[in-house]
Every structure is written in structure tokens, then in C-alpha cells.
# Entry
Amino acid sequence: MRNRTRWIVTAAMLTLLLAAVARASVEVEQLSSPELQARYQILIEELRCPKCQNQNLAGSDSMVATDLRREIRRLLEDGFTDREINEYMVARYGDFVLYRPPLQRNTVALWVAPGVFAALGLLALIVIVMRSRSGRGESQAADAEELTDNERRQLARLLGEDQIGHGKQDEQETRND
# Structure
């Protein structure tokens, strides 16, 4: 009975594996010239699949990506330039279809934010280094190491290290403080 179960599980896993391999997209249609084929490869790698969130047309096996690859081949064969093809795609799907959106009012944050965050990080690093070199960091550490007499007594009491003879007097002084 165990051998039969193992065989069924193995067969099911192989079936799933073969189904995934069979679903993978393979480009079999070649364009009329090597130049068009090279342009095609660049275009499908630079254009994003509208259905897949972060996958280019070359890596997507969705039906939408297949249709778009077919459309790009048709446009290339009809003599469209790369710019015209990009404009055609943007007109249909918006700037989302481009991995490198143009600098516009609605995309300024995408282009400026990385530089701003890098500058803020660099500024923070400079401030930290300057503080450590000026000695302000050391004086804070030295102040933190010194305890007042009252803090020492409280610490000793908490740790159960009251000195004999001073225990009651220290507790009263702690309460008075």
C-alpha cells in the first residue's frame, strides 16, 4: 500500500512539473532581419507586462504579454520606429508599461526621491562622524559611566548588596531623595 501511495505522489509531482514546463513561452516566430530581431528583443525587455506587476514582456507568459509581443513584431515589420512603438504602448496602457517612465509632473517623485534620500543619509553620516571626532560622543559616554552616590545606593539595594550597617540608613536616604 505504501509503494502505491509513493507512486501516486511521484506521478502527481511529475505531472505538475511537466505542466509548468509545457506552459513556458517560447518565441518561435523570427522577424525578417537580424536588426529587427535585435530591436524586438530590446523592446520586449524594456516594456512591462500590464497584467504582471513587475515583469517585462520577455519574461511574462501571460496571454496579454503574448499578444503584445505579437503586436510589437507586427509594428516592427510595418516599419515603426522604437519611439513610435513606445508611444503606441503608452497610449494604450499608460506610463506603467515603461520601466523608465519619462520625467513629468506626475513622475517627478520617482526621479527625485532616491537622490533626496541618498543626500539625507550622507548628511546623517557626516553629522555622526563629526560628533565622534569632536569628542562630544566621548563626553556623553563618560558622563553615563559615572553614578551619583544616591544611584549607587539604589543599585546596591536592587542587587541585594546592601552593606551591613548602612542598609537602614541608605533606605531612608533613598526615600527622602
Notes: The mean pLDDT is 79. The helical segments are 2-23, 34-46, 63-77, 82-93, 108-134, 136-145, 149-159, 167-176. Residues 87 and 159 are 74 Å apart (CA to CA). DSSP finds eight helices and no strands in the chain.
